[in-house]
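Practice problem: predict the structure.
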Amino acid sequence: MSLDRVVLALSGAFVLLAGVACVVDPASFSQQAGLSATPSALTEIRAFYGGLQVGVGCFLIWCVRQRTLTFAGLLLVAFAVGGAGVARALGMLIDQAPTAFHLTNLAVEATTVALVAVALSRHRRLAHA
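Answer:
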């Protein structure tokens, strides 16, 4: 399997599993993120952090199976994870309260975007060869 599809498969699996974890145990995510664990908040975590990630993860895995969608899947990862990373870094600068949770997630986001950038570059180079 090519690098671009490996990166896409790993991203899809990670997002899918993280989403399932938020649907099944939103209180754990709530605690890690320092969020209030009210019933309403738990439902929101299940829906947005869980359901949305499950849907995106399934789409990314679909993109691995459909070679014509590999580039689109990689772009989705780059923009979504990159957007989250930029917003997280901005939030830490504005709020001046970074936690280990935020720093770890920012490191994962930056690493993911770097890997996806390499995969996108290789994908484009091979497509135009």
